[in-house]
UniProtKB/TrEMBL annotation:
UniProt superkingdom: Bacteria
InterPro entries: ACP-like_sf, PP-bd_ACP
Species of provenance: Thermomonospora echinospora
Annotated protein name in UniProt: Acyl carrier protein
Pfam families linked: PP-binding
Domain Carrier: 3-81
Length: 85
């Protein structure tokens, strides 16, 4: 994983952890938010809104079903933000 990718994963982990009200260390790269942390649809929308604000990118809510893990979130955000790392 490149340093840029590592940094961005860390930032995304912080956002998700803050919304789910857990410690960042509890968010694993491949853990399912709904199963591991009882995340609901309102929290998913909050995560999406914070990501959009942080990275100044528009991601349609139709992508939410594709954002089940931190790795999934990274892939979706990277595709809309044009990250190539």
């Amino acid at each position: 994983m490149s340093q840029t990718m590592t940094d961005r994963m860390g930032e995304l982990r912080e956002i998700v952890a803050d919304v789910l009200e857990v410690e960042p260390e509890e968010i694993t790269d491949d853990g399912l938010f709904t199963e591991d942390h009882d995340a609901d649809s309102l929290q998913a929308i909050d995560v999406l809104a914070r990501i959009e604000k942080t990275y100044k990118v528009d991601i349609p809510q139709s992508e939410l079903p594709n954002m089940n893990t931190l790795q999934d979130v990274y892939k979706v955000v990277a595709s809309y933000a044009g990250w190539r790392d």
